[in-house]
């Protein structure tokens, strides 16, 4: 990877955080922060910028869509790529079409697909 990447993962399932933290560390993620809800994610982002925000699509609803919009508009997340992990492609692609999410990963997420998204985030210029 060209440079270290910082990732904010938003998912209410704490066990999933632990699994993905191990995987992301192995592929060169510099910082891995976990949030179990949109409000925690915004609070974490107020302390540092992130390159990539991964949002569990099962949390889709007003709070998560609001988070994705806040990610896009400011704070430590304004330059972050926004990825949704979804079981239903339609919900995720609707968020992409609305400009709220940049990309969608369908469940089950493969290590390769996750790595590709992290590498893509690493290639983006860091502005903050």
What is the rounded distance between the termini?
20 Å
CATH superfamily: Response regulator
Please provide the ordered H/E string of secondary-structure elements.
EHEHEHEHEH
Which residues form runs of ≥5 with pLDDT under 50?
A: none
* Fraction of residues in H or I helices: 40-55%
Q: Whole-number average pLDDT?
A: 77
| DSSP helical segment count | 5
Overall radius of gyration: 13 Å
Query: How many strands?
Result: 5
Description of the molecule:
43% of the residues lie in helices and 22% in strands. The chain is an alpha/beta fold. The chain has one domain: Rossmann fold (3-Layer(aba) Sandwich), CATH 3.40.50.2300. A five-stranded parallel β-sheet has the order 2-1-3-4-5, sandwiched between helices. α2 packs parallel to α3. It is globular and about 30 Å long. The two termini are 20 Å apart.
